Amino acid sequence: QVLLVFAEEDDQSNGFRWACDKAGFRCNIARTPQSALECFLDKHHDIIIIDHRHSRYFDAEALCRSIRTTKASENTVIICVVQRHTDREESSILPLISAGFTRRYVENSSRMACYNELIQLEFGQVQAQFKLRACNSLFTALEKSQEAIEITSEDHVIQYVNPAFETMMGYQIGELIEKELTEVPINEKKADFLDTINSCIKIGKEWQGMYYAKKKNGDSIQQNVKILPVIGQGGKIRHYVSISRLCNDNNKVEKTCECIQAESQTDTQTCRHKDMRKGSLDVRSTTSRGSDGSSQRRRSSMARVHSMTIEAPITKVINIINAAQESSPLPVAEALDRALEILRTTELYSPQLGTKDEDPHTSDLVGGLMTDGLRRLSGNEYILSAKQTHQVAGSLSSPISLNDIPPRITQAMENEEQWDFDIFELEAATHKRPLVYLGLKIFARFGICEFLNCSESTLRSWLQVIEANYHSSNSYHNSTHSADVLHATAYFLSKERVKQTLDPIDEVAALIAATVHDVDHPGRTNSFLCNAGSELAILYNDTAVLESHHAALAFQLTTRDGKCNIFKNMERNEYRTLRQVIIDMVLATEMTKHFEHVNKFVNSINKPLAALEENGNNGDGESIKTVLRSPENRILIKRMLIKCADISNPCRPREQCIEWAGRISEEYFAQTDEERRQGLPVVMPVFDRNTCSIPKSQLSFIDYFIIDMFDAWDAFADLPNLMEHLNNNIKYWKGLDGRNLRVLRPPP
């Protein structure tokens, strides 16, 4: 609701009135201070706009002060309309702030200017005030909670405790506010126990467990405690919430400690305090209640306290081992300690390489593909596409229709449904533009235009825009690679087991993700970009840099121009679902989580399906359907599908496999050359064009990344032809390596 206070009707008041109508806000108009105050006390408006241009009518500042004296105005936004002065120096806004105005508006009777002001207020100050109002009910709930609740700042300064906390610990709230937590938990597990808490903290988890705390009178009490960090401004932890419950003989906590989804503090719940800075804010005050914008996070966390416990599977394992250690002989306890050290690493799915005897080709590939690189060691910076402008629909020539494709291109695509389809023949026929043509045919075969409710011309424009933003100068990561991955994706989608599993929206997402998965790839690895301090690495915080860029740019290119926006006719919720799946699949192509994706696929899908077969349930459609159709497993299958499509080169017919090997090697050689020119760390030293053995590098890649993944995918999708090509290609590379040849092909 909006209240306009203008002594006379003019263009400015009419502009705001029109803006209220357009925005759907209820609007009242008052001509005098008295009528304005009466109207506000009756309606309790969210926004009040007061005319301050003509002091002869009424004192705007006095009116604002009068309104601010009422309790109803606590969460009201009050705007002051001031005259526009072009001939004198800007005046201070402080007198207006002192009078109680929220902000000022320099007169501008443009209707759209008034409308924009109201919309900015709605999504800015008004929305913030709504959150503050909601905090009153939240703190009422805290006051009545039977669990002891303590809230501290990021510096562990107590800002709030509820009555249940006062009762449990024997303190009055005045003795605690503005005091700092100073002691760690008193617990018989000592160092091991604290290590467990710290292991939760360091990996960003909440902590839950049982320990002893001291009351004011010195007595020790056993508590079941959950400590939750609250993320606030800047994405940093701004508060800690501690929820405690007394333990008794009839209510023993089964688990010693649990890591839950968030992070906890090191200085946990005990109650000896020392004086701390006096400027600390009592959380119960109105201003502090919504200051971190995280009331919703606290509300959802509190709502779950009584009803459920959330714990990660790895936490359950650690808790079981901790419990077993207590009653184990010394050798067993020491062995369990070593097991815990392994489990507490964040790289649970990545095989650990040796340091000296490991094949350097494997080491370099792993370093180059599965890490974000070393930090930059020189002052040089590689700025990726700093001034690059991306191709858009309007800058491209009109694409050809599917019905008007030249005969040579049609012939090159005749067997595109077969695995042995030759993408390089299509590349030559299309003059390095295979993606548009292959995309048109595959998308037509899968009925993509019908699903998206878009025209063929829109799809053609989209494919052309995407292809134009692949770098033809890259030897490997160009539109031919994208077309190859699209072909593999379409082939996998045609397999019976995959068709049983995925819905039409999954198929559409997979084909789109394959098309865009490397768009605007610079021909350099993530490690290179991080080492070079590139703009993209800075933008994406050195994490999944390229994959994040591919996904983001794909949607930017698609939605910025209606001519190529294939999503423009979709229903909003369906579009959001499709977008989510596309992004997830593109991000799955990032190699740092390769083993995590593969192991989850094996353990969640391959093994349960194999167990059903071993138990004679091969024909039990419902049991198989349960495994295949669960939302979690469908996500794993889609990730595995695009991962296999993305690096399927070793499973292609020999000549294609050799061509791809030459192209990726050249791209890595070029990166090594540039790293040396720029004075950057050389991520993959083995890829020196003068010394590298391409057969060895291919065998290392196949052995480390390909064999296990395609064994798992073959077991699921039944791909005997791919596995035959893979075995033949392994024999080929081994034959070259056995003759100490470093090249792609043997001499004539």
TrEMBL record:
Chain residues that bind AMP: 477-481, 518, 646, 698
UniProt biased composition (Low complexity): 284-294
Pathway: Purine metabolism; 3',5'-cyclic AMP degradation; AMP from 3',5'-cyclic AMP: step 1/1
Stored InterPro entries: HD/PDEase_dom, PAS, PAS-like_dom_sf, PAS_fold, PDE8-like_REC_N, PDEase, PDEase_catalytic_dom, PDEase_catalytic_dom_sf
Region of interest: Disordered: 268-305
Binding site for Zn(2+) 1: 481, 517-518, 646
UniProt feature, compositional bias: Basic and acidic residues: 270-281
EC number(s) on file: 3.1.4.-
Matches recorded under Gene3D superfamilies: 3'5'-cyclic nucleotide phosphodiesterase, catalytic domain (1.10.1300.10), 3.40.50.2300, PAS domain (3.30.450.20)
Subunit note: Interacts with RAF1. The interaction promotes RAF1 activity.
Function noted in UniProt: Hydrolyzes the second messenger cAMP, which is a key regulator of many important physiological processes. May be involved in maintaining basal levels of the cyclic nucleotide and/or in the cAMP regulation of germ cell development. Binding to RAF1 reduces RAF1 'Ser-259' inhibitory-phosphorylation and stimulates RAF1-dependent EGF-activated ERK-signaling. Protects against cell death induced by hydrogen peroxide and staurosporine.
Top-tier EC class: hydrolase
GO-annotated molecular function: 3',5'-cyclic-AMP phosphodiesterase activity; metal ion binding
Provenance organism: Pomatostomus ruficeps
CDD domains tied to this protein: HDc (cd00077), PAS (cd00130)
Keyword annotations from UniProtKB, A to Z: cAMP, Hydrolase, Metal-binding, Phosphoprotein
Domain (PDEase): residue spans on this chain: 401-740
Cofactor: how bound: Binds 2 divalent metal cations per subunit. Site 1 may preferentially bind zinc ions, while site 2 has a preference for magnesium and/or manganese ions.
Active-site residues (renumbered): 477
Family membership noted in the UniProt record: Belongs to the cyclic nucleotide phosphodiesterase family. PDE8 subfamily.
Ranges of residues in domain PAS: 134-204
A Pfam family per the record: PDEase_I
Names of required cofactors: a divalent metal cation
One GO BP: positive regulation of ERK1 and ERK2 cascade
UniProt-recorded name of the protein: Phosphodiesterase
